[in-house]
UniProtKB/TrEMBL annotation:
Annotated family: Belongs to the cation transport ATPase (P-type) (TC 3.A.3) family. Type V subfamily.
GO biological process terms on file: autophagosome-lysosome fusion; intracellular calcium ion homeostasis; regulation of autophagosome size; regulation of mitochondrion organization
CDD domains in alphabetical order: P-type_ATPase_cation (cd07542)
Domain of life, source organism: Eukaryota
SUPFAM superfamilies per UniProt: Calcium ATPase, transduction domain A, Calcium ATPase, transmembrane domain M, HAD-like, Metal cation-transporting ATPase, ATP-binding domain N
Protein name: Cation-transporting ATPase
Pfam families per the UniProt record, alphabetical: Cation_ATPase (PF13246), Cation_ATPase_N (PF00690), E1-E2_ATPase (PF00122)
Membrane topology note: Multi-pass membrane protein
Compartments in which it is found: Membrane
Gene this chain is encoded by: ATP13A2
Keyword Cell membrane: no
Residue ranges constituting the P-type ATPase A domain according to the UniProt record: 214-330
Length: 1102
């Protein structure tokens, strides 16, 4: 069978399917109709293949529990495999579940131990069987032929409407107009096809990756295969020089330095280490430091094979199931943007359709007495083509395209242009700290070593330390690697190594010599100290984990000395893993002092290991990272970027909330928040402590001022007297990741209130950042997120507007990528482009709607007197006036300041509807007045013809309506074009002003000093009365003045009186209602009161 989408079901796939097929049980279906991403799509065919004696079934695990079912491949007699493919993902039939399941379900329950057992490799037979089930390892973006694209394009409702309109115009003898529209449509289709083909070709080339790769077979031999043939479970050999990886794989042996900028936008290479062999289930997201992702460039691999070269990994995901496949899928099938402007635009088109229906009925009544039936139908349907402008959707995107072009000039690249308009409605912006608000690099401020359970004095230069465990920990506890003699890694670790004076070196000599030198351990790197100390070899690494907030290494010295384990990480985490007696009593106070001053603090610890320990067999890092001895603190200064304070100040002045989301210490984060202006010097910060329930106590929530401080009653009264509860801006909440998790799980009724007042979120894991963005969106916030793209990918993609600070021109981590390394792009994106684009889209929408209504009125008025506009008159209005003005109107630039008031997003709001309604009435009144002025002239001769429509041109009635409507098209472009506060004034758009002047001069010339040849071409009546002509021009000027005055009054709050009469009503946005409630309460947050969760109950046992 051939999987092709059916043209008959392009618009209504269900109807096409019902006509050809009959309903049957899902297990027997040959064709499926699915809802994919909220849209019913064309039918999918079910494939049947022979599975070589293997099929897919569900076999129960222990007991009868359904949730214990696991998927296995097992031999049985049924040889057929049923599956279908949707958006690149293969779904296979599982008879025990009675459903089609993603084929990835087969390897979702693999444990780390299972992966290590796969080092032996698959047999060729097993590989062939798996390939039949999983399919090819290919991210294939189809590039359709021009003929296919043309066929799909002309089936678009827009072009179908255009074809019907052209047929109608030809039947009504509008040959010139129809010919021009045909030419324009053909050019539009050609450009559209070329752009679609170019985009799909570019994406195809980016997604397609076919390379030779070495795999290990179960016989022990290695063979080179095509990457297309890789299947989950294949054992692959990564060469020392690296490779562009064609699949997702778990690293089992050796280390890899990987550039993941294609996925994350982060240009700093990441060190990947072997996956520990344990019984825990393997998860690529939680064990990303042991996972190699498809599409990432492995720069260097070492330690996995004889000679210390290369690495060994096992394929875990292929094709569209990989991380790269998921990102390509998100580009091919993006999540629909839920934005009110776009929804209202469709609703308004339906309203125009209703207006067209009313106009059609009026036309039938007016023309029924004097027309043959065919002409009557043509004239009536012609109204529909006038009222519903098919170019409306294209016109309102013009402002967005101009904004995208301007953003590109400022180094901001956009992969989702519709989100530019969404930027205009952002109400809260979240910022990562390190590398976003503060400088990427850190300077070592000093170290504090522990001596006899007390902290020694701060030593500003680690080189001044005497040789010992603390200095060795500073020099060796890192993931830095050498590439071409140059160290690569995290800037913090590079600074740390530099401060010690030690140097990173490759192991010298053969493997046997190196192993013998360092106690027969596999050496990953050697740290060479100054001459007075011994070299240290790093033999095992457990890399830094954002969720664990720590990393560790195992080192040995020459001569077979006992290995030492070193630990580095967040001070609180490191201290919790050390023996109690080794942690100084003043630990908490010292950490508090440094963090309060904005220093970045790391703690280090060590533990001697048994000399007989084979560190390569240590399965779980937890076995290593316990019972440590506390060594001291590394204090680093992280400077706030000079641009941060100004940008945050601009956003706060515009009444746009700013929030910091970081993985750093909460006190350091608060200090940075004060430094960049998120928290003003006079504003108080309240800390939230929440803890989950334990065996003897329920979940607890507490709010307090200061870190663990106890306040007196006098202090309480002072706080209350300063209006802590009365003003939402006088205090901020700060919460760490642990408390945020407890709040979400056990205090859901308090979480929305905390979200309304919290400004600092510290020690947040990457998944918690995403959770925060989602929680804010549930309060109806439009959320922006700005980060460096590394640990912020999930939050950047979840936010309504994600901005990644990256050197890449486009990052799939977020819709927007800024080449600047600071947040100055944020007000540019929100004010100078987002709001400008949204206001421009509104203006263009109103203009195109009014253009249709003006022409609608003109045609109905002329139908009433048995005539109509001529062929070239329509052409002159539609192309020379309206199209040209719509193109240049969107060029208007953004304002230089960010105004507190955000632009409207609803086209159905009262001001917009009143503006359209009242302006339409004034415009119709103007045309009717022109007609009556013509009737009142002494020389006027009424039209007396048995014919109707354009066949009785030229005539006086047509002339009057033509003149006034021509001026209306021009001056309404001025009326609807908005300037302050979100755009520059109209006169700043020089091209628009120039076109307006040319078109206005052209209309004056046509009215006052027409040439005979022009009158003949446009079928205009030759009127010589100059006073009458001047009267028409004056009427047009009066009409313009009235429309302009009306628009100014509406913009400046004329409708406020109507709202007052209607009474104050609650906002539809949940966060606004919550804000009002919190501003009115005097009892929240309850300071120094211990709240318990109503969801937990402690049962005492004796």
């Amino acid at each position: 069978m051939h999987s092709t989408r059916l043209s008959s079901g392009q618009w209504r796939p269900r109807l096409g399917l019902v006509a050809r097929c009959r309903l049957c049980p899902l297990a027997l279906a040959d064709v499926l109709l699915l809802r994919v991403r909220w849209v019913t799509v064309a039918p999918f065919f079910v494939y049947l293949i022979l599975s070589c004696g293997f099929s897919l079934e569900l076999v129960s695990g222990e007991g009868d529990d359904e949730w214990r079912d696991t998927v296995q491949l097992h031999q049985q007699e049924k040889p057929m495999l049923r599956y279908y493919v949707s958006e690149g993902i293969r779904y296979v039939w599982m008879s025990k579940k009675g459903a089609f399941c993603r084929v990835s379900i087969l390897n979702e329950d693999w444990t780390c131990a299972d992966l290590h057992q796969m080092q032996q490799g698959l047999s060729r037979e097993e590989q062939a069987r798996r390939k039949k089930i999983f399919g090819q390892n290919l991210i294939d973006v189809p590039v359709k032929s021009y003929l296919q694209l043309l066929f799909e394009e002309v089936l678009n409702p827009f072009y179908f409407f255009q074809v019907c309109s052209i047929v109608l115009w030809l039947a009504d003898n509008y040959y010139y107009y129809a010919a021009c529209i045909i030419i324009i449509s053909l050019i539009s289709i050609a450009i559209s096809l070329w752009e679609l083909r170019r985009q799909s070709t570019t994406l195809h080339d980016m997604a397609l990756l076919i390379i030779p790769i070495t795999v290990r077979r179960d016989t022990g031999e290695e063979e080179t295969v095509n990457s297309v043939d890789l299947v989950p479970g294949d054992c692959i050999v990564i060469p020392p020089e690296g490779v562009l990886l064609p699949c997702d794989a778990a690293l089992l042996v050796g280390e890899c330095m990987v550039n993941e900028s294609m996925l994350t936008g982060e240009s700093i290479p990441v060190m990947k280490t072997p996956l520990p062999a344990g019984d825990q289930q393997y998860n690529a997201d939680t064990q990303k430091r042991h996972t190699l992702y498809c599409g990432t460039q492995i720069i260097q691999a070492r330690g996995g094979m004889p000679g210390g070269r290369g690495a060994i990994a096992v394929v875990t995901r292929t094709g569209f199931f990989t991380a790269k496949g998921d990102l390509i899928s998100s580009i091919l099938y993006p999540k629909p943007i839920s934005f009110r402007f776009y929804k209202d635009a469709m609703k308004f088109l339906l309203f125009l359709g209703f207006v067209a229906l009313m106009g059609t009925i009026y036309s039938l009544v007016v023309l029924s007495k004097s027309n043959v039936m065919l002409q009557l139908v043509i004239r009536s349907l012609d109204i529909v083509t006038i009222v519903v402008p098919p170019a409306l959707p294209a016109a309102i995107t013009t402002g967005t395209l101009y904004a995208q072009h301007r953003l590109k000039k400022h180094g901001v690249f956009c992969v989702s242009p519709p989100r530019i308009n969404v930027c205009g409605k952002i109400s809260i912006f979240c910022f990562d700290k390190t590398g976003t608000l503060t400088e990427e690099g850190l300077d070592v401020w000093g170290v504090m070593q522990v001596k006899e359970t007390c902290f020694d004095e701060l030593v500003p230069d680690p080189r001044l330390l005497s040789p010992g465990h603390f200095l060795s920990a500073l020099a060796s506890c890192h993931s830095v690697a050498l590439l071409g003699g140059q160290p690569l890694g995290d800037p913090l670790e590079l600074k740390m190594i530099e401060s010690t004076g030690w140097e990173l070196e490759e192991p010298e000599g053969t493997d046997d010599e190196v192993h013998a030198t360092f106690g027969n351990q596999r050496v990953l790197a050697v740290m060479r100290p100054p001459p007075q100390d011994q070299a240290v070899a790093i033999v095992r690494r457990f890399p830094f984990s954002s969720s664990l907030q720590r990393m560790s290494v195992v080192t040995v010295k020459p001569g077979g000395q006992k290995p030492l384990a070193f630990l580095k990480g967040a001070p609180e985490v490191v201290a919790s893993l050390c023996t109690r007696q080794s942690v100084p009593d003043q630990f908490t106070g010292t950490l508090h002092d440094f963090a309060s001053e904005g220093f970045r603090v790391l703690a280090l610890a060590y533990k001697p290991l048994d000399g007989a320990t084979d560190v390569s067999t240590v399965r779980r890092r937890e076995e290593l990272e316990k019972g440590m001895t506390f060594l001291g603190l590394l204090v680093m200064k992280n400077q706030v970027k000079p641009e941060s304070a100004g940008v945050i100040g601009t956003l706060r002045q515009a009444q746009l909330r700013t929030v910091m989301v970081t993985g750093d210490n909460i006190l350091t984060a608060v200090n940075v928040a004060r430094g960049c202006g998120m928290v003003a010097s006079h504003e108080r910060v309240m800390f939230i402590h929440a803890s989950p329930p334990t065996g003897h106590s329920p979940a607890v929530l507490k709010f307090h001022l200061g870190e663990g401080g106890v306040r007196s009653e006098a202090s309480e009264e002072a706080v209350l007297s300063q209006g802590l509860y009365q003003s939402g801006d006088s205090y901020h909440l700060a919460v760490n990741g642990k408390s945020f998790g407890a709040l979400s799980d056990y205090f859901p009724e308090q979480l929305p209130k905390v979200l309304m007042r919290a400004t600092v979120y510290a020690r947040m894991a990457p998944e918690q950042k995403t959770q925060l963005v989602t929680a804010l969106q549930k309060l109806n916030y439009r959320v922006g997120m700005c980060g460096d793209g590394a640990n912020d990918c999930g939050a950047l993609r979840a936010a309504d507007v994600g901005v990644s600070l990256s050197e890449a021109e486009a990052s799939v981590a977020s819709p927007f990528t800024s080449k600047s390394n600071n947040i100055s792009c944020v007000p540019l994106l929100i004010s100078r482009e987002g709001r400008c684009s949204l206001v421009t889209s509104f203006s263009l929408f109103k203009y195109m709607a009014l253009y249709s209504l003006i022409q609608f009125a003109s045609v109905l008025i002329l139908y009433t007197v048995k005539t109509n506009l001529g062929d070239l008159q329509f052409l002159f209005f539609d192309l020379a006036l309206v199209t040209l003005l719509a193109i240049v109107m969107g060029r208007g630039g953004p304002s230089n300041e960010l105004h507190p008031q955000r632009p409207a997003a609803s086209l159905l709001a009262l001001p917009i509807l009143f503006s359209l309604l009242l302006n339409t009435l004034l415009l119709v009144l103007g045309q009717v007045s022109a007609l009556f002025i013509t009737y009142s002239q002494e020389w006027f001769v009424p039209l007396n013809s048995t014919q109707t429509g354009a066949s009785n041109l030229p005539n006086m009635e047509d002339y009057s309506v033509f003149v006034l409507s021509g001026f209306q098209y021009i001056f309404m472009a001025i009326v609807v074009t908005k300037g302050y506060p979100h755009k520059k004034a109209l006169y700043a758009n020089v091209v628009f002003v120039f076109v307006l002047m040319i078109l206005f001069a052209t209309m004056l010339w046509l009215v006052l000093f027409p040439q005979t040849i022009v009158q003949m071409i446009l079928s205009l009546y030759n009127i010589t009365d100059m006073n009458y002509k001047m009267l028409l021009v004056a009427l047009a000027a009066l009409n313009f003045f009235m429309c302009f005055l009306l628009e100014v009054l509406i913009d400046n709050g004329m409708l406020d009186s109507i709202r007052r009469l209607r009474g104050r009503h609650e906002s539809k946005k949940l966060y606004k209602r919550l804000n009002s409630q919190l501003a009115a309460t005097t009892s929240w947050p309850p300071l120094d009161q211990q709240l318990t969760s109503p969801q937990t109950t402690v049962i005492g046992l004796s």
